[in-house]
Amino acid sequence: MNKLTELNDTELLAAISAHEDSLRFDEFSIAIAHKLGNRLVQLAAERSLPIAVDITCAGHCLFHMATEGATPDNAEWIARKNRVVNRFHHSSLYMGVSCRMSGRSLEERYILPPHQYAAHGGAFPLRLKSGVVIGTITVSGLPQLDDHALVVEVLSEHLEQ
Asked: Domains, the chain, ranges and CATH?
């Protein structure tokens, strides 16, 4: 079960912030992108999850794949979530929760068009230890907290090795 669903917004924002602070890379490469993407696809197959996965660095798509049951809409959600991460250097879930706590949507708070930006969980910044954001890792197809949790699970597993 996804423990994020048990948290109130203040606790959730703190948990997401902790994810962002701890899940950082010494280095990143195409090989690492492929390893992470393949692991997400493997977990999706094992759990019968209909998702699309995207890993992009500096505008360069390093991995993009859909599993059984994913739809073309998932790719659109990925693009919209990635724009949020690239603009704010926070996960799309962080921005969604932050906006909800402020009482204003992303569109209202930052004057961003909803057809281009989605502050829903699933896109996560690829960040170096120095703090520099170099790209995004994104899952789309599940409820937003589950999209986020799957990305965090794979990043945590990889970075603990």
From this structure: 8-160 (3.30.450.150)
